[in-house]
Amino acid sequence: MTQTDYKFSLLRERPLLLQVEDSPMNLFALLEVKREPQRRWSALACFRKARLYGFFFGLMVMFLIMASYILTGDKKRLLLTPSPYHFSALVNPGPFPFNLSSARDYANIKMVVKSIASKVVFSSRPIPDRRDLVHNEPHMFSVIPRKFLPDAKNPCWYEEHSGNITGDPYGANLYARYSKRFRTAFDNLRNTFREHLYRRGNKYYRLRCLPYFYIIGQPKCGTTDLYDRLRLHPDVRFTTFKEPHWWTRKRFGIIRLSEGFHDRYPVEDYLDLFDPAAYLIQNHLQGNSSWGSSKRNIIIGEASASTMWDNNAWVYFYDNGTEGEPPFLIQDFVHAVQPDARFIVMLRDPVERLYSDYLYFGIANKSAEDFHEKVSDSLQLFEGCLAEFSMRSCVYNTTLNNAMPVRLQVGLYIVYLLDWLTVFDRDQILILRLEDHASNRKYTMHRVFDFLSLGPLTEQKEAEITKSPASNTRRPADKNLGPMLSVTKEILRDFYSPFNQKLAKVLRNESFLWAGHSKHM
Q1: What would the pLDDT profile of 32-57 be if each residue is shown by its tens digit?
Q2: Is the C or the N end of the chain the one with fewer CB within 10 Å?
Q3: How many CA atoms does the CB half-sphere of 498 hold within 13 Å?
Q4: pTM score, whole prediction
């Protein structure tokens, strides 16, 4: 008997749940039903098996496509999934859509979630050797030194400028090629580049800087609001726009997820983004009083919300010698060049995060019912992966992540956090909750200021930072769709529960259980 047949044999013996429409607090009631004829159950079992096999056939097709491109080295024409909600070709519910009022469908999904929970195991990962990291990213390690200037709070160093001082230092920058916003910023930088070169003997040097801190996640958890408030602080500077995505995407040549691979962005292109802040830091180091910010000890921030979790490019670039788990993660490379970096993580109830993510990135035909169907399909795909591979393998499985209609994996916060804690100390990572930030912004911002060792503010500036309206809130059209269905919320709470329990235990804070109701933002 196969695993699928066994599941349905269990369903025959268990009471089924039917929808009770006039009871919103208890959508489903337990009712005993008579055993249906064997012929009907056999047909249902065959349909379920066909649907499940269809999911795995889709995964296999995508795997073979990716493998063929990897083996031939033809990555530029390999299309990545444009968003998690455009993968209808491989995740097809078949001719009969998921029936929300069907007790059998509800019971089936509940058993899928129970099966997933039984396979939740948090194992340790091996830390890669620095030599292996250098072997895979030799150019990056040749550019970034192992030690930074001792007199600057921000990690900076002087790099010899080998080009023509009258030439265009940003002419080849790929950020400028693909972004109008960066082109405008580089036009302004180009005009002042020469005056910021430091001359020593017959050589010219430019100050290079990396971020002092990173806002690394998670998507739809309030990172934009935190970014907008932090950039109002006079001691903080960011790049031209919030998310360069260099560590997770541009470094591998991913510009837009709807396109294939392009030229990989070299680390110099990433460092160029911090030149405006580097100029202020340079003036501070040289005591140049002609610049208004020269007396301030500037630090640089970077706010790509993909940094904590997005390792989808690994399968194309790194050898898989770890049974489906990435041999290297983003944090391994960050730690190798910046062992003292600081990180801010904003989290929210993963159930609400997933719905917000669906509403924000979905394009057409959005509804609570459609969300429910996509959640059900994604849970079955995730369970299928866990039947063969480890939890970490499935969380970082690029094929699975692209196939799931909703991004379930982004809400598995503890999996990512534990992996970050393998290379960084706990006191280097500040973890906040969106729910706390929404109810008391002054408190959370003071925690951030203390974490970054920022200087004192005037009352007027502090009020400007903490009392401004929230950023990137839910769009009116999405609000009109209403909340998710109660049954969907119940299923998702059961799915995320073991992960939240581990998170609360690691952080020693029961608020990360999200046992109560969370506010929308």
Answers
A1: 333 343 444 344 445 445 555 555 55
A2: N
A3: 13
A4: 0.81
